[in-house]
Design goal:
The complex is a heterodimer of chains A (139) and B (663). Chain A is α+β, with helices and mostly antiparallel strands and 139 residues long. Chain A contains four helices and seven strands, in the order αββαβββββαα. In chain A, 40% of the residues are buried. In chain B, a hairpin with a 3-residue loop joins strand 9 and strand 10. Chain B is globular and about 85 Å long. The chains are: A alpha+beta (139), B alpha+beta (663). Strand 1 of chain A pairs antiparallel with strand 1 of chain B.
Chain lengths: 139, 663
């Protein structure tokens, strides 16, 4: 009996904690093409390819102006969005690399949260590295 | 080479299949010879998989670029140690590592138990070989490490520079030693259910396996964090990334099991719960592998999409469904001998600790798969941010921290008010007294959450130290031994208990590191020319010039930063940036000055033509204590798991003695 009461109480408390915590932290995944459908002010995880990465990206991302680059739709280079980013830039950041950045849309540009840039590296751990690798073109 | 490797794996698969059949058949009419034959097959699987793994290592070391794995993940210029560690750089390679560890563990488990638990062992053998067989099927038919290329390239593509360091040599194998080790308790649990031998005997057999796997998993996770901290250059060590969560969840549930199992041994309660935990731990270990291999959730590690996802998911569902169905049919036999007598008792505290740990694991699980669920339900991929995890983990973590001090002091069955007062008055008094001291002399209470953690840490330390003191005093008074001698004797005579307390002290240290580095980190960016200075968190940073070097491999630029506090030089940091020509990729080399009170962490963003250096400086308090905690926890775990001489002798004499002594 006591066991059941403790269990029930824990479930209620835990559920409440998860519920309240989840509310404020939702982030919607969107590609550049999907950005138009996102409500203003919503936190977004932007997912796409880097159109053209400047060679001194890490340097710029630490400057007062920040790093500006374009992220394009994976299979459609015409759909893209300008990104303003500050913070640390992963070493794998480069042109045509798939990235995920957390931030918000402000006046048509995507303003990223500090240190939120993540690069996905498809080349080194998939079961078909040669086919999935964008590095092949550059090497 | 390729043919031999494939043949070895296929033979291993056949041997595993034979072991399953022979072991299960031996249960009919107690045919011992058949079970012995199955056990020999297990040794054969171990030998065959080891041979194929060594063959692959040989291919890596000798630059056999005919093999795709070698050509894709190694190169002739790679250092020998990294050639070996390239074994687990690819998907097929890491599956091979998994199968290798699995087959060695299985052989060890069978060998250690060759003279005991005759009823359980056939089923244990069968379960272990089914799991090994699953990996061998994948290695043979879906993702072979011995795949060859039509034309062998002259040079390999090399190992990702991020993986070329000692942490990445140790982190994946340790993690796997943990993950895979959890299969042994699972196999014993299934065997207990199948054979209806549901007393505490099977628990005695797996206790040490669980502790050791738990240790490996924990240390693996910590080394992974240390790698991220040292190599990735964003100043942090944990990001609640799906792949990190994948390892964290089974560790949490295994921690819960390590505690609740004591309630079953002592009071015959929570039998169903313990079964669920053992099953869940292993399923979560499989799920972790599935998460990293399937690419179902976007992650920093993002190993790309692989074709193995459905197979893994299928195996997980079969394992989960099968074990739960089996558990369901045995429910009547798992009824508790006792019921919970009081909300304030040792068993109740263990229950709370379990609910918190499993609750946290559930929240992490929920957060990790949230995008998959929303995409299925709403058609929109929504994820939860780091904020969610921190918000959930913080209160749960603090509650758990306090319980690490409370639990050991509360008596079994029920505690009276007077008992509580007597046992906790001193510790609580010390904790309360520490608040003004911490607030006045340190910044601890500048952040309320951190203040609560630090004060709780004082409380728990007082509780646990008190336990050591009391025990030592009694021994000193009884035996006429010296104080240190009494302490050593105390721990030696009851390794499990006092090893556990050492782990608890390690947990306290861990929380101090977590609170310090989460609540008080300062980060600032600087653009400094030579001779210029900047201020961060009371430190003055001075650019003292740069050096550029260039080899055939890479170009490097290093900036020297002098760090001054109150006019005195406290550190010299040399953050660097390399550029690897072969990969066309830069590599950030973090500069770190580690100390007990804070880490100074410098990242070089770049150096322009005019000599203007852009650097980020992080002042991360108390990070060092995370790694110290890891060492303490590891030491405590070893003490708890180490077989004492007495236990060893009794194990040989009678199989049932172990459970009695292990308590």
């Amino acid at each position: 009996m006591r066991f059941s009461i403790a269990l029930a109480l824990a479930a209620v408390l835990g559920g409440w904690l998860i519920w309240t915590s989840i509310g404020g932290s939702l982030e919607t995944y969107a590609s550049p093409a999907q950005l138009s459908t996102v409500a203003p002010g919503e936190t977004i995880r932007l997912n796409g390819l880097v159109s053209e990465a400047p060679a001194d990206a890490a340097e710029r991302a630490q400057s007062a102006e920040g790093l500006t680059f374009w992220v394009q739709e994976k299979f459609d280079a015409s759909k893209k969005v300008k990104v303003l980013y500050r913070g640390s830039v992963p070493d794998a950041f480069r042109t045509r690399r798939e990235v995920v950045i957390t931030g918000k849309l402000e006046n048509g540009a995507f303003v990223a949260k500090r240190n939120s840039l993540v690069t996905l590296c498809p080349s080194k751990f998939s079961d078909q590295p040669a086919a999935a690798s964008p590095e092949k073109d550059t090497n | 080479m390729s043919l031999l490797g494939r043949a070895l794996l296929l033979l291993a698969l056949l041997a595993a299949a034979y072991a399953v059949g022979a072991a299960l058949l031996s249960r009919q009419g107690g045919r011992r010879s058949l079970q012995r034959s199955a056990e020999r097959a297990v040794y054969a699987v171990c030998a065959l998989v080891s041979a194929s793994a060594l063959l692959m290592i040989g291919a890596l070391v000798t630059d056999d670029f005919k093999l795709r794995h070698v050509a894709e993940y190694s190169s002739s210029t790679l250092a020998l140690k990294f050639k070996i560690s390239a074994l687990w750089a690819s998907q097929a390679g890491s599956l091979l590592l998994w199968a290798w560890i699995m087959s060695c563990y299985a052989a060890l488990a069978v060998w250690l138990n060759r003279r005991r638990s005759r009823e359980l062992m056939p089923v244990v053998t069968a379960v272990l070989m089914v799991i090994a067989g699953f990996f061998l099927v994948m290695l043979s038919f879906l993702s072979s490490p011995f795949e060859t290329l039509a034309v062998a390239p002259a040079e390999g593509r090399g190992l990702n520079p991020l993986l070329q360091n000692e942490y990445m040599m140790a982190h994946p194998p340790l993690l796997y030693l943990g993950y895979v080790g959890l299969a042994i308790p699972f196999a014993f649990a299934i065997a207990a259910l199948v054979t209806r031998r549901l007393d505490t005997q099977w628990i005695g057999y797996i206790r040490r396996w669980t502790v050791v796997s738990w240790l490996f998993l924990g240390v693996g996770i910590l080394l992974g964090s240390r790698w991220a901290y040292h190599e990735l250059g964003w100043g942090g060590y944990w990001a609640w990334d799906p792949v990190e969560n994948a390892a964290f969840m089974p560790w949490l549930v295994a921690t819960a099991f390590l505690h609740s199992v004591m309630v079953q041994e002592r009071r015959g309660m929570l039998k169903v719960w313990n079964m669920v935990l053992v099953i869940l731990t292993f399923i979560l270990a499989l799920f972790g592998t599935f998460l990293t291999r399937s690419g179902i959730v976007a992650s920093v590690h993002a190993f790309g999409e692989s074709t193995l996802g459905p197979f893994f998911l299928g195996f997980i569902l079969v394992a989960l469904g099968g074990s739960l169905a089996l558990l369901f049919t045995r429910l009547p036999e798992l009824r508790s001998r006792h019921s919970l007598e009081s909300y304030i008792s040792r068993e109740a505290i263990f229950l709370y600790n379990n609910l918190l740990l499993v609750g946290l694991a559930f929240a992490v699980f929920w957060g990790t798969i949230f995008p998959v669920i929303t995409e299925a339900v709403q058609g929109e991929k929504i994820t939860v941010g780091v904020g969610f995890y921190n918000q959930v983990a913080m209160p749960i973590g603090i509650a758990l921290l306090i319980l690490t001090g409370v639990g050991p002091l509360i008596p079994w069955r029920k505690a009276s008010g007077r008992q509580l007062l007597r046992r906790f008055a001193v510790s609580a008094g010390i904790a309360v007294a520490s608040i003004p001291v911490l607030a006045l002399l340190t910044d601890a209470w500048d952040n309320v959450w951190a203040g609560v953690v630090f004060t709780s840490a004082v409380f728990v330390t007082a509780c646990v130290t008190g336990e050591f003191l009391r025990g030592t005093r009694v021994r000193h008074a009884l035996g006429g031994v010296s104080w240190p001698g009494a302490l050593v004797q105390l721990v030696q005579r009851n390794r499990r208990r006092y090893g556990g307390y050492i782990v608890h002290l390690g947990v306290v240290i861990l929380f101090i590191g977590l609170a310090g580095s989460n609540a008080f980190t300062t980060e600032r960016d600087f653009a400094l020319k030579k001779g210029e200075r900047g201020e961060v968190a009371g430190y003055t940073i001075v650019n003292e010039g740069f050096t550029r070097t260039r080899t055939d491999h890479k170009g490097s630029v290093t900036v020297q930063l002098g760090v001054f506090e109150d006019g005195e030089r406290v550190a010299t940091l040399r953050p660097a940036r390399d550029f690897y020509f072969a990969d066309q990729q830069p590599s950030t080399e973090v500069a770190l000055d580690s100390g007990p009170s804070r880490d100074l962490y410098a990242v070089l963003g770049g150096l322009d033509e005019q000599g203007l250096a852009r650097v980020s400086i992080f002042v991360n308090p108390l990070v060092m204590w995370l790694w110290i905690a890891g060492v303490v926890i590891f030491a405590g775990g070893l003490v708890a798991a180490w077989p004492g001489p007495r236990v060893r002798r009794q194990e040989q004499e009678s199989p049932s003695a172990l459970t009695g002594v292990a308590r």
